[in-house]
Amino acid sequence: MKKANLKSMNKQTKSMLITYAMVIAVFIIVEIMISTGMMSSLMQGLLVPLCIYSIVAVGLNLCVGYLGELSLGHAGFMCVGAFSSAVFSKCMMTSGMNETLRFILAILIGTVVAAIFGWLIGIPVLRLRVDYLAIVTLAFGEIIKNMVNVLYIGKDSKGFHVTTKDVMALNMDADGTVILNGPQGITGTPKNSTFVIGFILILLTLFIVQNLINSRDGRAIMAIRDNRIAAESIGINITKYKLMAFTISAAMAGAAGVLYAHNISTLTANTNNFGYNMSITILVFVVLGGIGNIRGSIIAAVILTLLPELLRGMKDYRMLIYAIVLIVMMLFNWSPMTGERSILVSGKKQRRLNKNEYIVGCKKSGNLFRWSPCCK
C-alpha cells in the first residue's frame, strides 16, 4: 500500500514539475526574444493579456473541473478585483508611495475583495446545482457590472463622496477629483502590469491550485464532485469545501482583474471585458484545455488569445479558421477526467480496484461507483 501511494505521489509531482517547467521555459524564451528584438510590439502588447487569461482560466478550472460546479460569473469577480484595485491605486498616486509597494497592495486588495464577494455570493448560490447554478452566477456577474456603471466616487479634502446619480451630486470642493465616473469608469490608472509580474502570479496560482488539489481538502472537493451523496455519508462538510473552492477561484479571478486594470489607461465595465462574453470566453479556455487539466487551461488560453491576432492578415477567413481550430481542439480534447473520475463498475470497461478503493452503491439509481476515501 505504501508503495502504491509513493508511486501515485511521484506521478503527481512529475505532472506539477512539467507544468512549472513549461511556464518557466516559455518565460525565458519570451524574454530572450524581447531582448534580441525578435518580438514585435504587437506581440509584446499581448503578453500581459495572456497572463490574465491563464490565471482566470486556472481559477475557473478549480471550480468547474475539481469542484464540478459550472460558474458563469467569473467575469464579475474580475470586475470587482479590477475596480477595487484601480480605486486604491488612483487614490494613492499622490501619496508618494513606492510604485512597486503600491501595486503589490493593489493586488492584495483586489484579490481579497474578490474573495469576499465570492464567499458572500457562494453562500446562497452553491445550494443550487448544474444549470441553475450557471444561470444565477451569470446573473450575479451582470449585477456586479451594472452596479459599477451607476457608481460615482470622488475625493476631496473632506474625504470620499459616493453617489449613484451623477458627478454633480458628489458635492465636492474645488480641489476634489473624480475617481470613478459611472459608465466612463476610471481614467489615469497607473500602468504597472508587466509580463514579469504576470509570470510570477501564474506561478503563485499554479502553486496554490496544485497544492490544494493534492491535499486532504482537495481530495474532499473532488469527492464531492464525484459523488455528493457518498461524500456526505462519510462526514465531508459539503458546504465548507464548496465555499472554499469557490472563494479561492473567485480570488484568482480578482487577481487577474488587477492585472487587467493596471494594463490599460481607461477602465470601464462593459459587456466585452466584464460581461457575459468574457465569462463564456473563460469557460471556452477551460473546456477546450480539458476540464480538470490545469496545464491544458493555460495552453488553451494562450493559443486562443494569440490565434485571432496571428490570423488578422487573412481578413475574411480569420474567423473561419478560428472556428475550425476550436472544433479540432474539442475533438482531440485531452482532459484527464475521462479515466480518473468515478466510473460505473458494472459497465464493459473496467479496471482493477486499487488497495485504497472501495465499491459504493447508489440506492436511488442502483449504480456502483469506485470510491477512494479522502483521508487515505
| Total E-strand runs | 7
Q: Extract low-pLDDT stretches.
A: 335-353, 358-370
Report the biggest beta sheet as strand number plus sense, adding barrel if it closes. Answer: 3 strands, antiparallel
Oligomer: single chain
Strand/helix succession: HHHHHHEEEEHHHHEHHHHHEE
Briefly characterize the structure.
The protein is mainly alpha-helical and 376 residues long. It has helices at 2-35, 41-45, 47-66, 74-92, 99-125, 130-149, 195-213, 216-226, 228-233, 238-261, 271-274, 276-289, 294-310, 318-331, 337-340, and strands at 152-156, 159-163, 177-181, 186-187, 266-267, 358-361, 368-371.
Keywords for this entry:
376 residues, two-stranded antiparallel ribbon, mainly alpha, 7 strands, 15 helices
How would the blueprint of this fold be written?
Layout lengths: L1 H34 L5 H5 L1 H20 L7 H19 L6 H27 L4 H20 L2 E5 L2 E5 L13 E5 L4 E2 L7 H19 L2 H11 L1 H6 L4 H24 L4 E2 L3 H4 L1 H14 L4 H17 L7 H14 L5 H4 L17 E4 L6 E4 L5
Antiparallel strand pairs: 1-2, 1-3, 4-5, 6-7
Commentary on this structure:
The chain has 376 residues and is mainly α. Helix content is 63%, strand content 7%. It has 15 helices and seven strands. It has helices at 2-35, 41-45, 47-66, 74-92, 99-125, 130-149, 195-213, 216-226, 228-233, 238-261, 271-274, 276-289, 294-310, 318-331, 337-340; strands at 152-156, 159-163, 177-181, 186-187, 266-267, 358-361, 368-371. The strands form three sheets. Strands 2-1-3 form a three-stranded antiparallel sheet, covered by helices on one side. It is globular and about 65 Å long. The protein starts with a helix and ends in a 5-residue tail after the last strand. Residues 335-353 and 358-370 have low confidence and may be disordered.
